[in-house]
């Protein structure tokens, strides 16, 4: 077996349980994510998708269980749900992206090299002409692009994306997916994203994990996202709205 054939586990989640009150919202979660893999997490509202991403990102410590990484902790890029952010303060697009560099270096990034990175990532996401605009002036789809830029500008090895395409129009969605695939293919970035978009996002991913407090299914998108499973997971009566 050649070196490239050895599959390395990037994230090993074992028996993770967590709740905000005394009732768990995640229970006994076991999940192995391989290096260079793209994984899509689906499940109804309140299923615990955001919580799981925050636990992997190290923002929340689980009640019990463990999160282990291959060797040392990887550089992580995290994109929160943009809808939950209050924009009642002035900050420009390029300043938001610069915060992603600050995460890594703890120094405000105004070196030429950093500026070049910010420019490149905004260009890749078709946002360079809006670099000096206030973030609150942008549409929801544009804000998504900026937050993705912030999550990837420091060249993470592991990317965690909380509903990166929700509320985005199809062209924004496809741009976001294109940038993610490039990072995955060209730089080997491991990607874990959550989505509600079964047809536009989940079915295009190689591996889908369905959760609702526990892991309900894990495997190939086409095997997992069947009408029967969607009915079971979401309680949908009319699956034609998502398939
Ligand atoms: P999802 O991302 O799948 O919609 P979440 O992880 O956001 O699910 O939420 C899981 C459960 O935890 C929900 O019942 C939600 O109401 C609850 N929850 C999420 N965040 C908090 C919080 N900060 N405080 C209390 N309860 C929370």
What does this structure look like?
The chain has 243 residues and is of the alpha/beta class. The model has no long low-confidence stretch (mean pLDDT 89). It is globular and about 50 Å long. The protein has helices spanning 49-57, 93-105, 112-124, 140-152, 170-187, 221-224, 227-234, and strands spanning 9-18, 26-34, 38-42, 64-69, 76-79, 158-162, 190-194, 207-212, 214-220. A hairpin with a 7-residue loop joins strand 1 and strand 2. The longest helix has 18 residues, at 170-187. The strands form two sheets. Strands 5-6-7-3-8-9 form a six-stranded mixed beta sheet, with helices on both faces. Strands 2-1-4 form a three-stranded antiparallel beta sheet, with helices on one face. It has seven helices and nine strands. Helix 2 (93-105) packs across helix 3 (112-124). It has two domains: 1-74 and 158-164 and 188-243, Rossmann fold (3-Layer(aba) Sandwich); 82-156, no CATH class. Bound molecules: adenosine-5'-diphosphate. Adenosine-5'-diphosphate binds next to helix 1. The site of adenosine-5'-diphosphate (ADP) has 10 residues, from helix 1.
């Amino acid at each position: 077996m050649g070196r490239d054939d050895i599959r390395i586990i990037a994230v090993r989640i074992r028996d993770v349980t967590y709740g905000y009150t005394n009732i768990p919202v995640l229970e006994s979660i076991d999940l192995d994510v391989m290096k260079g893999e793209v994984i899509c997490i689906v499940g109804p509202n309140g299923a615990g998708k955001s919580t799981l991403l925050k636990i992997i990102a190290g923002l929340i410590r689980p009640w019990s269980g463990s999160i282990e990484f291959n060797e040392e902790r990887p550089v992580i890029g995290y994109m929160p749900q943009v809808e939950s952010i209050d924009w009642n303060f002035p900050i420009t697009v390029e300043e938001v992206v610069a915060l992603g560099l600050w995460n890594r270096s703890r120094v405000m990034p105004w070196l030429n090299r950093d500026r070049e990175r910010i420019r490149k990532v905004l260009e890749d996401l078709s946002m360079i002409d809006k670099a000096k605009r206030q973030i609150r002036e942008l549409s929801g789809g544009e804000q998504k692009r900026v937050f993705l830029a912030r999550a990837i500008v420091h060249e993470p090895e592991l990317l965690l994306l909380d509903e990166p395409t929700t509320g985005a129009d199809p062209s924004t969605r496809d741009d976001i997916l294109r940038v993610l695939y490039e990072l995955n293919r060209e730089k080997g970035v491991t990607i874990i994203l959550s989505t509600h978009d079964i047809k536009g996002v989940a079915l295009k991913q190689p591996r889908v994990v369905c959760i609702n407090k526990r892991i309900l299914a894990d495997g190939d998108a086409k095997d997992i996202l069947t009408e029967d499973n969607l009915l079971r997971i979401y309680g949908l009566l009319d699956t034609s709205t998502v398939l």
